[in-house]
């Protein structure tokens, strides 16, 4: 969930997706988090006991499937819900051309999800959800290089209690149980979209999202870093300052900076004339990543990915997130977005095609989802092949 780069009217950018919530949903958020029981364990700073050799691989490895979720909450989305559902179905059908897709839906809305997604997508009605942000609520899968697969839950708490999440807080563990793979609760509270991994020991994250009292009030940055490395099987975290309190995620990294491989990454860059907080954040991420080394001490080569001109995109929504960097890599393809700035859309596609020469680059119109503050990576979670 990444209401981040909407620079069209930056002074009005607040917790955009929050405006879709009923007051009762917000009031229930903290109670739902407490009901999971996870908050108590995390308050002590406890860390998981991870299996030796397990680590989260980079997303370019072969996948067994993609996990997604079907939104059906009018209290969350209001009148935007049909458009968002259409976008979720389009993404699911497109990915299903390249690898299996399993979509979790509430029992009452599962028939509609099946009708929208078609026979190529498996709709699972035994794992209930609150919303569609599987990147954040779903499990983070790990492999051991010897045929083993397990899952880690990041103790999703509705981005710091900003949205109801009683079901989403349980999604990671329920998917692991469905797959009959071992499950571990991480030693921090966060979301999958808050962390990028190169699969070779190096992570990227923003302090604003994870070193935040709405997720980890009793953990220092060093403790959060240790818990991240333990959960992901990494040894180094490259930290960006991020932007606090301006969007519901507190600035997730996955709409700005991504790893392409070990010692290789990209950063979506703003126009030179953009001066808002998100543009400054992106420039800082580029500077930090360009001068950083990875866990092995290698300098990181960084490719700039030019963002669009918000004056030329289709949407006029102030919450719109035009993040080409929020793409999803699946078997044989890269699923990205296009926003209506024809020149920037074409340039972004060309850049991604150059970076992923052996994959098809699919560009989708997911304006409904983007107007709600998210993107394609936000609503997907890969299950790597063991």
From TrEMBL:
Cited SUPFAM superfamilies: Pentein
Organism this protein belongs to: Streptomyces lunalinharesii
Domain of life assignment: Bacteria
Signal peptide residues on this chain, from the entry's feature table: 1-34
UniProt cross-references to Pfam families, sorted A to Z: PAD_porph
Signal in keyword set: yes
Name the record gives this protein: Agmatine deiminase family protein
Organism placement in taxonomy: Bacteria, Bacillati, Actinomycetota, Actinomycetes, Kitasatosporales
Keywords tagged on the record: Hydrolase, Signal
Keyword hit for Hydrolase: yes
